[in-house]
Write a structure and sequence with these properties.
- Strands 1, 18, 19, 20, 23 and 24 form a six-stranded mixed β-sheet that branches. This protein has a six-stranded antiparallel beta barrel with strand order 3-12-15-14-13-16.
- Helix 4 runs antiparallel to helix 5.
- About 3% of the residues have low confidence.
- 30% of the residues lie in helices and 31% in strands.
- The chain starts with a helix and ends with a strand.
- It contains five helices and 24 strands.
- It is an alpha+beta fold.
- The longest helix has 43 residues.
Length: 412
């Protein structure tokens, strides 16, 4: 029952009023007074709770400007690690898998067997082609022997015809038979060559039953299992696999970043850069610009930039998030490094007519008036004073956050 309902219940019946007029005050004043005190206590408790409840906030650490790569950067952009050499390995013929010899993470060499198809049909076709080729070559040998004999007969008959021992017609017939055998031999030699070509074709098809790695790399996905039908063409209503797995050349990894087209003029080919993986924020990888892709994305108003990482490492894998800082062509001298700390731009808010940040200490937020420098470093701002390196500052402080407010730090 709410407080309003309780108050509505506090009414005095007519007979009670008569009794009161005729006698003592009764218990009702005490009841009403008790209820008022309870309501006051509840209101005071609610005011205290909401007034002192910790405010949830997100924080970031202020870093020294001279130690952050953004301090010497002309531009920062985010992107992903990509592989320039990646392939989905598939069979070149349709067949049933009898063996899959790969697992995710396996390192393979070019030409290594990754899977095997049922080869019984292609083995039979190869054996048949070899047998036909042997028969064709045997017939060639037969015609060669027959031609040799016919040539001898023709020479003998021609000699006898000159001596008048046989007719010239018989000698001419012997010569014609030899020429006919020679033509049959040439034809059969061509048939034998065609049979040899069929053997080569059968061997190639038989070789397709072994699926091999096209280059050195690492297996990133295994897409088929023993017993499945694979084909280079999609068929069977989507039930036929078109790939065995995916292989990636880890030496071809690079970074693709999208740069706002308003700032693409700051980026040049071979420009030095520094890449920081989201997974390893303390690991800075030297890099440089490979190329600026001559095409823009009208939907995002960005231009793709290819960045090469100058150090290869097994920790770098495709599709990792990465932040790239494009650096000045000439490094800034240490004496010219900006003084102060860098904080996210969202940590700076207006309070009491001045720009301020809230520094977290002992579970409370402490407001500090600051004067940020005009120069920006990507999404970071330089604060020359009032904040020290290592201080935790509140990101996007809420409007109800004030100096001394209790806070609870939330993880990102």
């Amino acid at each position: 029952m709410s407080n309003t309902d309780l108050l509505k219940e506090l009414k005095i019946e007519r007979h009670q009023r008569d009794d009161h007029q005729g006698g003592g005050a009764g218990p009702w004043p005490w009841i009403v007074g008790g209820i008022v005190l309870v309501l006051l206590a509840l209101g005071a408790g609610g005011w205290w709770w909401f007034g002192h409840r910790p405010i949830p906030v997100h924080v970031a650490q202020a870093v020294a400007a001279g130690s952050d790569p953004a301090a010497g950067a002309v531009l920062q952009a985010t992107g992903y690690v990509t592989a320039r050499r990646e392939a989905t390995v598939s069979a070149q013929i349709t067949g049933t898998l009898t063996a899959v010899l790969i697992e995710e993470g396996d390192h393979v060499k070019q030409g290594q067997i990754l899977a095997k198809l049922d080869d019984s049909q292609y083995k039979a076709a190869l054996d048949s082609a070899i047998a036909q080729a042997k028969a064709a070559h045997a017939l060639v040998n037969q015609y060669q022997v027959q031609l040799t004999q016919n040539l001898r007969d023709a020479g003998r008959d021609e000699a006898l015809a000159k001596q008048g021992l046989v007719s010239k017609q018989a000698a001419e017939q012997a010569r014609t038979l030899a020429n006919s055998t020679r033509a049959q031999l040439i034809s059969q030699e061509k048939n034998a060559a065609a049979a040899d070509a069929q053997v080569v074709e059968a061997q190639v098809n038989y070789g397709y039953c072994l699926i091999r790695a096209p280059f050195d790399g690492v297996i990133t996905t295994k897409d088929a299992q023993v017993g499945e039908v694979v084909s280079p063409f999609s068929a069977g209503g989507g039930f036929t696999r078109t790939g065995i797995g995916t292989i990636v050349d880890m030496d071809s990894l690079e970074v693709d970043v999208d740069v706002n087209e308003a700032y693409i003029g700051r980026v040049t080919p071979n420009m030095p850069a520094e890449a920081v993986l989201d997974a390893y924020p303390d690991w800075r990888i030297p890099a440089h610009v490979i190329a600026i892709v001559p095409a823009a994305d009208r939907g995002k108003a960005t231009v793709k930039v290819r960045v090469a990482m100058e150090k290869k490492d097994a920790r770098i894998v495709p599709d990792m998030g990465v932040r790239v800082s494009f650096l000045e062509a000439k490094p800034v001298a240490a004496a010219q490094a900006p003084k102060g700390v860098l904080v996210p731009a969202k940590a700076i808010v207006q309070r009491d007519g001045s720009e301020s940040v809230f520094v977290v200490s002992d579970g409370k937020a402490h407001r500090r008036a600051v004067q940020p420098a005009a120069q920006t470093f990507g999404d970071m701002r330089l604060i020359p004073a009032s904040v020290n390196a290592g201080d935790s500052v509140v990101i996007a402080p809420p409007d109800d956050l004030h100096d001394g407010s209790d806070i609870s730090v939330q993880t990102q």
